[in-house]
């Protein structure tokens, strides 16, 4: 797993050269609605979002793989598989979830003939996921550098950040729905279908929760 950490560090350094000019704007858009409206799909911003989201998912995939609490017990399909391959599998699942969400929202936008509305929803979700991931990195580094026995501390911190990210995204998405003239009912339907249920499935898969 050491070379995965090295790869994440190198990827961050290289990616920073291309995303440093837009990273601040993407984070500010999470707190200022007007900035999120102006954050359109220009080529450099689109690349920054894609890279930062992929990097964020890689960070969470690494944590899930290295955790002694998550993926315990391992699903039968992963029994006997090396940690690096488990990391690749977890990252693949997270990327697949993100890709399905992207195309689902784009398809809905095409069906309702309101692509700018669903595009803003999709971008907003990505931005809050990025914020949660980069807020989690300092905790990972702190516990690693101090060589603290974390127990479930990092897991609690990670889940808290994910919860806060989802909460802020829900509030922002409600404003987007109301601004576009849609009712609260469609907002609830959107949350349940494309946010809560998929997230619940991921938690069930990775945390081994048996409902």
Give a structural overview:
The chain has 211 residues and is an all-alpha fold. Helices cover 80% and strands 0% of the residues. It has seven helices and no strands. The chain is globular. The model has no long low-confidence stretch (mean pLDDT 79).
**Count of strand segments:** 0
Shape: globular
**Percentage of residues assigned to helices:** over 70%
- List unreliable stretches of 5+ residues: none
**Separate helix tally:** 7
Structural class: mainly alpha
What is the strand content? under 5%
Largest sheet features: none
How much is the average pLDDT?
79
Please state the CA-atom Rg, rounded to the nearest Å: 18 Å
N- and C-termini, Cα separation: 31 Å
Along the chain, the helix and strand elements come as: HHHHHHH
Any chance you could write out the topology, listing elements then pairs?
Elements lengths: L1 H27 L4 H6 L4 H24 L16 H29 L3 H32 L6 H27 L4 H24 L4
Produce a short descriptive summary.
The chain is mainly α. It has helices at residues 2-28, 33-38, 43-66, 83-111, 115-146, 153-179, 184-207.
């Amino acid at each position: 797993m050491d070379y995965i950490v090295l790869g994440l560090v190198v990827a961050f350094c290289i990616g920073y050269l291309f995303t440093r000019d837009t990273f601040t704007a993407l984070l500010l858009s999470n707190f200022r609605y007007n900035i999120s409206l102006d954050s359109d799909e220009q080529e450099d911003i689109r690349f920054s979002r894609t890279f930062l989201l992929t990097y964020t998912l890689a960070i969470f995939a690494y944590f899930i793989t290295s955790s002694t609490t998550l993926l315990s017990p391992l699903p039968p399909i992963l029994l006997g598989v090396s940690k690096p391959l488990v990391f690749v599998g977890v990252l693949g699942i997270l990327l697949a979830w993100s890709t399905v969400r992207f195309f689902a929202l784009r398809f809905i936008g095409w069906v309702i003939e309101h692509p700018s509305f669903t595009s803003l929803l999709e971008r907003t979700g990505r931005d809050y996921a990025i914020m949660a991931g980069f807020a989690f990195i300092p905790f990972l580094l702190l516990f690693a550098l101090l060589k603290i026995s974390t127990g479930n501390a990092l897991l609690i911190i990670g889940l808290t950040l994910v919860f806060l990210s989802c909460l802020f995204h829900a509030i922002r998405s409600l404003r987007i729905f109301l601004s576009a003239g849609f009712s609260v009912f469609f907002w609830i339907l959107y949350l349940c279908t494309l946010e809560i249920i998929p997230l619940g499935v991921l938690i069930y898969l990775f945390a081994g929760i048996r409902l």
